[in-house]
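Re: that chain you flagged

S.,

Sorry for the slow reply, it's been a week of failed gels. I finally had a moment to sit down with the sequence you sent. For the record, here it is as I used it:
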Amino acid sequence: MAKRLVVVAGNIGAGKTSLTERIGERLGWWTGYESVADNPYLSDFYADMRTWSFHLQIFFLGHRAEQYLEAARDPRSAILDRSIYEDAYIFARALHHIGNLSERDYLAYRRLFDLVVNSLPRPGLLIYLKAPVPVLLERIRRRARNIETGISAEYLSLLDSFYEEWLNTFDLCPVLTIRTDDLDYVHQPQALDVVTSRMLDKLAGKEEVDLRE
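Prediction finished late last night. Pasting the structure tokens below so you have them in one place:
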């Protein structure tokens, strides 16, 4: 198979990092991860979203654009933990919706986002990981990141609704939807086999059925 770019999308706690890591290891692909531990704005953002929302969105936009370009330069196929599109269509939209990103800042961000994204290569596949909000909350609780203690069910539900709306019109590449609440690809090798096989089939144009209940 020729070099491909796969992006993994999904709500907070859906299992994006775990899947990216394991597929990268299994196939020898280049992997890119969301900046969390080394993010200079994330802790400030969770402490005061209204003050730091614009700064955080600009940081993520630059960070992910650099990842896309680095992945394009690497000779291997690549898989990225979260897509750049979610920054605008899910998270910036949510921040604007709940009043933590002003109209002026939101429009300025979207203008810059459009300019950046139009210069980047399109992915070959988007993998959308989906799980019910109670499952997401339990996973967030178990990983016990201090910066995530304020994440509520209402916020996750809002993000979930925005994901559904976004994916209903997303047409940049094929989408493979995977329900992760009962698919343990972390501890069950056979589950990872299934996901990897479906991903490769979808990239090759052979798989049209999503992994969902």
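What I noticed first: The chain has eight helices and five strands.

Talk soon,
D.
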